[in-house]
């Protein structure tokens, strides 16, 4: 009996020093434990997603208060130095507001990608601290995770502004939330198989920040800059020095007796491409977010390109009205992307094929001021020589046709669309 009592005491002592780690799901814990130690998860306490718990287990945890208010009532050396929280820099406020207006997309792992040069994530977390057996609840923690991303047309660089904000807590009387911690942990990878030779990315000196809630509450923002070194202009030799990289951020939460940070939560990820493509890209080098959806928008009410816009609208929505005509015809660009083609000879072949089709339908139109408008464009891999006849030609005003071509070229350079890059069409009324 004495031996059994001693073992029970030892087990309880072990439980009080076990890890407290953020889990998004129980399976994540099991998978990580098996892959790192091949041992079962330690007994103790754990943060779990409140959404994973039944409603009756959240009763009594609906009186959360702002962390600053809680800290004032639990004075300690760690909170006595607190001051007002730093505001977000002024030049980021517009993006933050737009991000909040796209809440559904912003809370995903990739966030809301505004363009090839701006992205943001605003992801709310609602965690419950409980013992690992699920018999005792020790508190609740809510906060917002923000990540603002900025890529640059003209520089092989990408910046991230990360933060933990709007922290609310509700611990039981015996638990001290001033000792709870949140961590953001960044890392990156390179897709060497899709990059040009010798791809490299230089990470910032600091990629991990694990702080007490009180530190996040007063200093919520921190900055990270990733760059890719280049070897000068090599694009004329066929090397655009493209580097395809993914930046990932994992989130951790713990209380005083936590084990080392658990990887794999993948709270945020960002696809990035660095290039030194030369004149074809506009500015000779730059960086873009690869998951951005790029659209060329034309309006049927714009007098400068209304004939081009109507033609594209018909090709996408009423292909039976377009030439060449065949049963079941469909034309890409709305749901299926188009892809840029930079080979001048192949572009010329597309135009020649399209003009021939215009001649078959309308005969000789020389001297009319009309031009043969083709869609998909000659500068796309889906042009008329692709061989599937999923294209359309129409005679339209020459100035309209040429203005539409200039708009297309502007879209290419403003978005750093390189050979093979995808984009979509959008025609408005």
Describe the structure.
This protein is of the alpha+beta class. It has 2 domains: 10-289, no CATH class; 295-428, no CATH class. 24% of the residues lie in helices and 30% in strands. Strands 1, 2, 3, 4, 5, 6, 7 and 10 form an 8-stranded mixed sheet that branches. Strand 6 and strand 7 (157-171) form a beta hairpin. The termini are far apart.
Note the topology.
Layout: H1 2-16, E1 22-23, H2 26-36, E2 45-49, E3 65-66, H3 67-72, H4 77-80, H5 93-101, H6 103-106, E4 112-113, E5 118-131, E6 137-151, E7 157-171, E8 181-190, E9 208-212, H7 213-218, E10 221-227, E11 243-254, E12 268-275, E13 286-289, E14 295-299, H8 306-317, E15 338-339, H9 344-362, E16 370-375, E17 392-397, H10 398-414, E18 422-428
Signal peptide: 1-33
Biased composition (Low complexity): 80-92
Protein name: Deoxyribonuclease NucA/NucB domain-containing protein
């Amino acid at each position: 009996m004495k031996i059994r009592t001693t073992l029970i005491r030892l087990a309880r002592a072990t439980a009080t020093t076990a890890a407290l780690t953020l889990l998004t799901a129980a399976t994540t814990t099991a998978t990580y434990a098996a892959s790192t130690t091949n041992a079962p998860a330690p007994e103790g306490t754990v943060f779990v997603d409140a959404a994973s718990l039944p409603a009756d287990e959240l009763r009594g945890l609906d009186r959360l208060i702002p962390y600053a208010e809680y800290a004032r009532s639990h004075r300690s050396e760690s909170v006595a130095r607190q001051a007002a929280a730093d505001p977000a820099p002024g030049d980021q406020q517009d993006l933050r507001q737009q991000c909040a207006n796209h809440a559904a997309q912003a809370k995903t792992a990739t966030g809301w990608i505004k363009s090839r040069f701006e992205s943001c994530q605003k992801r709310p977390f609602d965690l419950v601290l409980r013992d690992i057996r699920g018999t005792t609840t020790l508190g609740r923690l809510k906060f917002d995770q923000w990540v603002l991303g900025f890529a640059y047309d003209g520089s092989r660089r990408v910046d991230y502004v990360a933060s933990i904000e709007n922290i609310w807590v509700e611990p039981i009387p015996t638990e001290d939330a001033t000792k709870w911690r949140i961590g953001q942990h960044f890392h990156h990878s390179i897709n060497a198989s899709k990059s040009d030779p010798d791809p490299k990315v230089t990470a910032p000196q600091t990629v991990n920040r694990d702080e007490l809630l009180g530190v996040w509450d007063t200093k919520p923002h921190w900055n990270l800059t990733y760059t890719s070194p280049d070897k000068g202009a090599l694009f004329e030799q066929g090397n655009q020095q493209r580097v395809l990289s993914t930046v990932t951020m994992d989130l951790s939460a713990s209380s005083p007796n936590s084990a080392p940070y658990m990887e794999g939560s993948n709270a945020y990820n960002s696809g990035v491409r660095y290039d030194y493509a030369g004149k074809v890209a506009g500015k000779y080098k730059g960086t873009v977010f690869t998951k951005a959806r790029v659209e060329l928008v034309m309006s049927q009410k714009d007098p400068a390109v209304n004939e081009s816009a109507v033609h594209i609208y018909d090709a996408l929505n009423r292909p039976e009205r377009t030439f060449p005509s065949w049963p079941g015809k469909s034309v890409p660009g709305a749901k299926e992307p188009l892809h840029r083609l930079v080979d001048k000879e192949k572009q010329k072949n597309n135009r020649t094929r399209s003009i021939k089709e215009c001649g078959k339908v309308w005969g000789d139109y020389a001297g009319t001021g009309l031009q043969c408008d083709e869609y998909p464009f000659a500068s796309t891999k889906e042009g008329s020589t692709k061989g599937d006849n999923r294209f359309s030609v129409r005679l339209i005003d020459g100035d309209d046709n040429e203005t539409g071509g200039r708009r297309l070229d502007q879209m290419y350079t403003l978005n750093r669309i390189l050979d093979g890059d995808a984009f979509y069409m959008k025609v408005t009324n």
